Amino acid sequence: MQGVQAVFHAATLHKPHVATHSRREFIDTNVTGTLNLLEGAVTTGVAAFVYTSTTSVFGNALVPPAGAPAAWVTEEVRPIPKNIYGVTKAAAEDLCQLFHRNKGLACIVLRTSRFFPEADDEKIVREAYADDNIKVNEYLFRRVDIEDAVSAHLLAAERAPAIGFRRYIISATTPFSRDDLADLRADAALAAARRVPDYQAEYAQRGWKMLPGIDRVYVNERARDELGWQPRYDFKFIIDRLRAGGDPRSPLARLVGSKGYHAETFTERPYPVE
């Protein structure tokens, strides 16, 4: 790392590896690997360390009790990881905080929501929705375009020395407010129509449908306020693009395409689920 000014640490074993890799491999890659990079960054005087984490660290905190409103998920929500992926990503976040506290390394943690292009891992979802349909639905609450994710990383590297340490949720800007949460859990179509009424005609034309209910909303307000992040690809923006005959994906998302998580293919789903 000699001469390196900023580190973007995105290397990881992901949720799609939970059923194919051991817990020890997750610790070796996600925790020990992060420790190695942090040590190298401190030794060589790196100015900014940006860690790509995940909203999966929230785990069971994302699921409200039956009958409760949808969860309003900000950085203040306490993570309750539900698998080895979430545990190791949360531990790596804490290592970043420790190296800032004890070594003065400027570290920004970006908890990114879904941006992968692969089909949904749940068979019931794949059978109920067209792939583009479910992905556009997710821009209401848990998806980000990779172009917006990249811009967040660049801003994090630029602002890290001034900020020191901070965690940010990186997800598309939701049209909802706290006032929508009860309706959102019970009738997502009603809540979406109130905020983005144009979506109904576009969905009807394509034979698409809204989710019956949505159980959480990722809130990106802190990243917009403190990093100056201005994500473009939100639900309304994408509906407008569809109405104009455009592609819901950014040019960068189309260029990157699917990287894949495994060398082999699986008959039942895009990857095995534990």
Structural domain tally: 1
Based on the coordinates given, report the CATH architecture. Answer: 3-Layer(aba) Sandwich
How would you state the average pLDDT, rounded? 95
CA gyration radius, whole angstroms: 19 Å
Kindly report the name of the CATH homologous superfamily: NAD(P)-binding Rossmann-like Domain
Could you state the oligomeric state of the chains shown?
A: single chain
The biggest sheet, with number of strands, parallel, antiparallel or mixed sense and barrel status, is: 4 strands, parallel
Number of helices: 11
How many beta strands in the DSSP annotation?
6
Series of H and E elements: EHEEHEHHHEHHHEHHH
**Helix percentage:** 40-55%
What low-confidence regions span 5 or more consecutive residues with pLDDT below 50? none
Question: Strand-residue fraction?
Answer: 5-15%
CATH-defined topology: Rossmann fold
How are the strands of the biggest sheet laid out side by side? 1-2-4-5
CATH class: Alpha Beta
Instruction: Name the overall outline.
Output: globular
Q: Which structural class do you get from the secondary structure elements? A: alpha/beta
* Cα end-to-end separation: 37 Å
What does this structure look like?
With 274 residues, the chain is α/β, with parallel strands linked by helices. The chain has a single domain (6-243), classed as 3-Layer(aba) Sandwich (Rossmann fold). Helix content is 43%, strand content 11%. The chain has 11 helices and 6 strands. The chain has a 4-stranded parallel sheet with strand order 1-2-4-5, sandwiched between helices. Strands 3-6 form a two-stranded parallel ribbon. Helix 1 links the parallel strand 1 (6-9) and strand 2 (48-54). Helix 1 (23-44) runs parallel beside helix 2 (84-103). The mean pLDDT is 95.
